[in-house]
Amino acid sequence: MTIFKRKDKLLSHSSRLFYFLAILLWNIGGCRTQHQNTNLFGIYISTLDGRNMRVLVSDPYREMNHARVSPDQKWVTFTRYNKRGPKGLAMEKGGYEETEIMIIRLDGTGLESIVPPKKGIVAANGYWTPDGKGILYVSTDNPERKPQINLIDLKTRRIIRIPTPEGFWVADPHQVKDRLVFSVIKKGKKVCQCIWTMKVDGKDPVQLTSPKISSKKRVHPPLGDFDPKLSPDGKRVALMRQVKERIWHVVIVDLENGKEMDISPFDSVDAVPEWSSDGRLLIFWHVDPKRIKNSGLYTMRPDGKERKRIPLPHGYFYTMPAFFPREGPDGRIRIIFSARKDRRF
Questions:
Q1: Domain that holds residue 177
Q2: What percent of the chain has pLDDT above 70?
Q3: CATH number of the domain that 47 lies in?
Q4: Is residue 320 within a helix (H) or strand (E), and if so which, with residue range?
Q5: Is the pTM of this model over 0.85?
Q6: HSE-CB for 280 with a 13 A CA cutoff
Q7: Counting beta carbons within 10 angstroms of the beta carbon of residue 160, is it exposed (0 to 12), middle (13 to 18) or buried (19 or more)?
Q8: Which residue from 188, 221, 237, 329 has the highest number of Cβ atoms inside 10 Å of its Cβ?
Q9: Are 93 and 107 in contact, with CB atoms under 8 Å apart?
């Protein structure tokens, strides 16, 4: 989730993907009345074989996504949207203003907003620190309204700013050990949407990627890299690269030598990859605009082989998956994801 400012509205890269999909779904007969469902939006849990699916939390009008399980498997954090748009729905495609960071116990109790929504402010894309004591998230709660990375201590509820390089718009934080990766909009003669890495204390900042992607027309957000995730051993990064308008690929970057490997098919739309705890699998969200029923949650190896769809129940539009921490490597591995009820699936 990378935040941009356009026409005085805050939008994210993933929200642009959601917007494209929403228009596509509407044009082929979208769900014009499904907001009447009491549990239209939800965070769900299942095993990797697609079985044992259950809802963790649901909402009739507010979208919820970016769900991640704590290292001790006791809590879940997620982003909830509150700014209502058409049909009274608060969705990611409407931007990230008035978002909030939520937590809930894995048994569905203890729902709480730990970073409550504020008018015109972003608080989104939470990710647990490795010790489970804090949550990193993207915030614009500062005088400049500039996207920055904050850390909230869950015990004290104290919030501090992570010292990313000055002058950058930053988002998509992910930490393994003492290392952090994040996406950056680097402005200048040419806009660079790239990935940086540094130690959590702000030391040793390094630009990891510098995608050179040509386009005959200007694309917003710019072509480039988003949503980086460090592998469990901290040696590789999986990221989502917009290689051309409406085409996203999963790219693996070796941190030691900087070598990159695009592991998605040529015209594929593959988004928001996440690592399994043993580093053997990636889970991601795939969209097939030509055969929309083929869209869903998929897994593949970090070399792009053994690409498989997760056979989840029909009737839902699935997005934003992640593995449970410290589980593997068979079908009993649990996954967490967002879903919206949709009869056409």
A1: 3-341
A2: 83
A3: 2.120.10.30
A4: strand 316-323
A5: yes
A6: 8
A7: exposed
A8: 237
A9: no
Q: Total domain count for the chain? A: 1
Q: What is the pLDDT of residues 39-69, one digit of tens each?
A: 899 999 999 999 999 999 999 999 999 999 9
Q: Which residue has the higher pLDDT, 247 or 104?
A: 104
Between CA 17 and CA 19 the distance in angstroms is 5
Comparing CA positions, the residue from 96, 100, 99 lying closest to residue 113 is 100
Residue 31 φ/ψ, nearest 5 degrees: -80, 95
In single-letter form, the type of residue at position 192 comes to C
User: pLDDT at position 14, please?
Assistant: 53
* Average pLDDT score over the chain: 87
Residue 188 to residue 202: CA distance in whole angstroms: 23
Residue whose C-alpha is closest to residue 139's, from 125, 153, 156, 158: 125
Whether 250 contacts 239, CB under 8 Å = yes
CA distance to 86, 178, 182, 237, 280, per residue, from 134 (Å)? 35, 14, 17, 22, 26
Using DSSP's 3-state secondary structure scheme, residue 27 falls into: helix
Q: In this structure, are residues 129 and 151 in contact, taking their beta carbons and an 8 Å threshold?
A: yes
Token pair recorded at residue 72: 């001790």
In one-letter notation, the amino acid at residue 285 is W
